[in-house]
Amino acid sequence: MKQSTLIILSCLLFGLSNISFAQNARFITEGVIEFERSNNMYAMIQKRINKNNEGYMGQFFEQFKKTSPQFKLTKSTLSFSNQTTLFKPVTDDAPAVPFFGEDPAVSQINTTYTDLHTHQQITQKKVFEETFLVKDSTRTINWKITNETREIAGFNCRRANALIMDSIYVVAFYTDQIPISGGPESFTGLPGMILGLALPHENVTWFAKTVTDRPLGNSKLIPPIKGKATDNKGLKLTLSNALKNWGEYARSMFKSFLL
Predict the structure, then answer these.
(1) How far apart are the C-alpha atoms of 220 and 80, rounded to whole Å?
(2) Cα separation of the two ends of the chain
(3) For the purposes of burial, counting CB atoms within 10 Å of the CB of 187, is it exposed (0-12), middle (13-18) or buried (19 or more)?
(4) CA 25, CA 27: separation in Å to the nearest integer?
(5) Domain residue ranges in the chain
(6) What is the pLDDT of residue 27?
(7) What are phi and psi of 46, to 5 degrees?
(8) According to CATH, what is the number of the domain 28-258?
(9) Gap between the Cα atoms of 184 and 12, Å rounded
(10) CA angle 64, 209, 90 (to 5 degrees)
(11) E strands, 94-236, where?
């Protein structure tokens, strides 16, 4: 009898604790997320060293390690209101990274407006000296949600994995405490906001540093309007023609321009 009573009391306490947690949980539908993007420059340079260039590239790498930090850090913001998001890079006045210049692999080239209700995106994309305005549907990503969790910017997040563009492995951490299926850059499609994103083989990550809960209204989330109009198919064709004589170097740039 005593054991049954203890079991009943335990169940009641467990239920009350869950109710209390639900009442105190922090759910946000409008606000601004500040992301920090990190590029592992050492790893990126090492990938570009091969038997044909190891002489001068090896010397460059050793000098780079003496004069430059391993990680290039840049900031961006993701403003969101209900089912609309606007991802924008924060202006970076730092000089270009030696050797990489305006390489899209280490530059922030996109301003992306996403309407999650209609699954449409408008991206203003800088491609060298030209700016494109890419209007198309959101990327379809077949996420596989795991049981791994971690805390990011004060929110409990769950891990999901995916493969995009046939070969790019993606790791994302999302929180259902922000019940919006958005994320940095063009990444969407999870049951909550993506606060952490990593492309391990591309040596780049995006992680939320702060989340500010404040009303915005869709009128403040205005899509970009400047640039040469195209869609994803048209952009791929333009890039293929522009980079066809760039050899192996073109593969990396091609992927970076399409992220």
Answers:
(1) 10
(2) 63
(3) buried
(4) 6
(5) 28-258
(6) 84
(7) -60, -35
(8) 2.50.20
(9) 41
(10) 65
(11) 110-115, 120-127, 130-137, 144-152, 155-164, 168-175, 193-199, 204-213, 228-230
